[in-house]
Amino acid sequence: MKLAGHDAMARQADEKTTTYRVKLPRRIVERPLRQVARRVLMALSVLVATAMIVWFDRTGYTDNSDGKVDLLDAFYYATVTLSTTGYGDIVPVSDTARLINIFVITPLRVLFLIILVGTTLEVLTERTREEWRLNRWRSNLRDHTVVVGFGTKGRSAVETVCATGLKPEQVVVVDPSGKVIEAANSLGYAGVMGDATRSDVLVRAEVQRAKKIIIATQRDDTAVLVALTARQLNRSAKIVAAVREEENAPLLRQSGADAVITSASAAGRLLGLSVLSPHAGMVMEDLIQQGSGLDLIERPVIKAEVGLKPRETEDLVVSVVRGHRVLGYDDKAVGALQLTDRLIAIVRATPTRQVAPDAKPLPRD
Q: I need a surface site. Which of 81, 160, 267, 360 has the fewest CB within 10 A?
């Protein structure tokens, strides 16, 4: 597979215009226009309160123009005082007016200035807080799951993995679309916006410290490049990838993927099964939907099962993983179960079911 010339040019153009950065999930904040409106109302409230204080104590003030202070003069004095302009044409002359200026109007002036510059302070504080959150996130992120591509396949894969107990904080989504990253953030996942075929983008997702990598891109050639880059950065992570065409599956395995799911042929087989036997199709659909009805899992053999036949266990065992071989439950080579074996079994998905800590769902189509 080779990238077409125009695709390569488009990729180079995107590299020049796209900013690669990490976006962490965040709480829903107030809309900017509402924040501005709220600050304006607060500033006006302080202004009116100051003007009323001056108006009620107007006998303690003098106006150099006519000697009297009316309501307009009170608002004028409040405006120039709170803005620290201070023309000096209206001044407090009585002791009471001066004390009020010291203990009441001066704090109101400080509050007014805080409200005016609050937006700038909030931006600076938010940047500092976001940088601190990002540094803490990087330092705590270990053995996480990286999902490249958050379309239908990627989203379903994440939902399946999270149904087994993986926390959203342990998922990092990589996608070139900003809207997709925002959707991932809304679900509680961290996101990195950028081209996952670039090593610097995957490094931002901490791929080098990831335990599992799910590749669910739209194009098969992109999946191959991502697998090559991810395997170069992380030699021990388990990489599972999806391809559209079955002929590209061997190339993905050579690129470093541990398991390859052919989405088109898998969907076609499920359609054919549903045509031949609708009920069998329903059962298969149930098996590939983690967390409801029946689940297909892979788990280790427990001590109580050592020496038993696969059919003598509590679960419905369909295969036994011994070393690098996957043996059917009725294979004569299985014999008695060993402590180092792993079982692929069909179990009832119930919240109260106790499974081994390292039990895991099988890769879904």
A: 267
